[in-house]
Amino acid sequence: MNELIPAFSFQRVFVEPWTQPGGGFIWIALMGFFVTAACGLVGNYLILRRMALVGDAISHSVLPGIVIAFLLAKSRNSMAMFVGALAAGGLTTVIIETIHKRSRVKQDAAIGIAFTSLFALGVILISLFASKVDLDQECVLYGEIAFVPLEEIVRIGGLGLGPLPVVRMAAVTLVVALLVILFYKELLVSSFDPALAVSLGINSSLVHYGLMAMLSVVVVSAFEAVGAILVVAMLILPGATASLLSQRLPLMLGLTVLHAALSAVLGLHLGVWLNCSIAGAMVVAGTGLFCLVWVAGLFKWYAVRSSNRVVGNKSGGGVSDLLNSST
Amino acid sequence: MADAPPLEIHDLTVAYHKKPVLWGVDLVVPPGKLVGIVGPNGAGKSTLIKAAMGLLPVSSGWVKVFGESVAKNFRRVGYVPQRESVDWDFPVSVMDVVLMGRYGKLGLLKRPTKDDHDKARECLDKVKMLPYANRQISNLSGGQQQRVFLARALAQESELYFMDEPFAGVDAATESAIIALLHELRAAGKTLLVVHHDLPTARNYFDMLLLLNMRVVAFGPTEEVFNYETLQKTYGGRLTILSEVAEAVRVKG
């Protein structure tokens, strides 16, 4: 009767996606997980460095890079697009830094200038060469994760690994996880105290550009699945949720990956139920998880506060504990 | 090499957005001294130590640490930044912060070893913060945060230390703990440059004073430099400070 919200059927929403022949939905769930996990890991460091907006900037400004690479390569060669997007991402970082350091314009304003101009350039290029560019603007903005299972299957020695975007995203996620583990201490100290990093012989600006390069690669690989706008949510939501749950970086990184898995699976089911954009549903699921953790945290805070008032602060946590320990 | 002074600065000029904040600073700091850097707000005290450590681009002049550029000798230099310069909500424990002091000794891709953990615990114990080793850093008072920074500097095991206002906003107990620690480091032959805000205590704390107001007004042993003329030159016509200076000189005489 109400067509706005389709009727809920457990069989259709929770069972069919996993039992469907061909396993299309499994690839969609995996793609969603890899995208959110890779974005979330990099996003954690963006949040810690108060650079959340830079993720927004790079996700938009890779557009002209992709279009120019497309025009030069004259095909949807993914390698060319990858390089183009990476170059555009690097250019954005350099523009932001240059405006910020060589003028009185503050960093947030510099970000606003850099990415909107580059995005506008991309829009102009698309409309100028619309006839030659087989790029769907809608796809650029929102992505189409539902098409992922239809892509060409990667085979190694006859063994089908999976659709190309999923395999590529899995590789990117693996590399990001590896880099985060290998360069844990460099990333940690240059995020917490860049001045100290320099005095320890750690090149903070090299770490910065490395992180930006990683961000560009992640954003570009996530692009066709979730688009330029939703990728921003995937950069920030997992890390923000994890930061509410833990005050230790390694645990936060683990919780980020858990958040990614949960929002991919829940989002898939939500998308199937409402018959809507699955990438959008994954972001909504991630937001739901964030709100859940936030509200639970508020309840816990009230509980601790009222119990402190009654018992007179025996356990740790409150402000009074802080005052006690300073003497 | 053995005779090279811990810190030598020649004709150092530093500018922010083309506006100079430090002009032609010349300085040779002898080894084993506890040096206080004093001067009014905006005198370039923090800028001087940041430039000396290579954290800021310099317009002219050069800095040598033990006869070499600081980039080559970074292992011999320890740093205590201003407490407000970091985000204390950062998801790390007290132990994690002190371990950062060991990173300079570890190579790329290496993790802190058991020895590094032992060293970090030893340094925490020296500042009486060992019981707090597993605390999240946001649960610390200002004085405790400063002690953690000092423990991290100790863990660096350097020979030359730059400290940016270690006494700012700490309680009296922490202040005397810090000064005891500084004296201990000096006794071990380390050289320390400390940015300090409070004139009356500056006279008692430091062997040598660097009076700074965009230029070096005076540099020398505290008893020679700490007098009405040089302090007035440093602080200019700032009335409240001048009365503080007068009080400080009176106490001295």
Written overview of the protein:
The complex is a heterodimer of chains A (327) and B (253). The model of chain A is unreliable at 311-327 (pLDDT under 50). In chain A, a hairpin with a 2-residue loop joins strand 1 (153-156) and strand 2. In chain A, helix 7 (164-182) crosses helix 10. By secondary structure, chain A is mostly helical. Chain A has a two-stranded antiparallel ribbon with strand order 1-2. Chain A has helices at 10-19, 24-48, 52-73, 78-102, 107-128, 137-142, 164-182, 184-192, 194-199, 204-245, 249-274, 278-311, 319-325, and strands at residues 153-156, 159-163. The radius of gyration of chain A is 22 Å and the shape is globular. Chain A has a domain at 24-231: ABC transporter involved in vitamin B12 uptake, BtuC (Orthogonal Bundle), CATH 1.10.3470. Chain B is globular, with a radius of gyration of 18 Å. In chain B, the strands form two sheets. Chain B has a six-stranded mixed β-sheet, sandwiched between helices. In chain B, strands 2-1-4 form a three-stranded antiparallel β-sheet, covered by helices on one side. Helix content of chain B is 36%, strand content 23%. Chain B has nine helices and nine strands. The longest helix of chain B has 16 residues, at 172-187. Chain B has one domain (7-252): P-loop containing nucleotide triphosphate hydrolases (Rossmann fold, 3-Layer(aba) Sandwich), CATH 3.40.50.300. Chain B has 253 residues and is of the alpha/beta class. Chain B starts with 6 loop residues before the first strand and ends with a helix. The interface between A and B is large, with 33 and 40 residues.
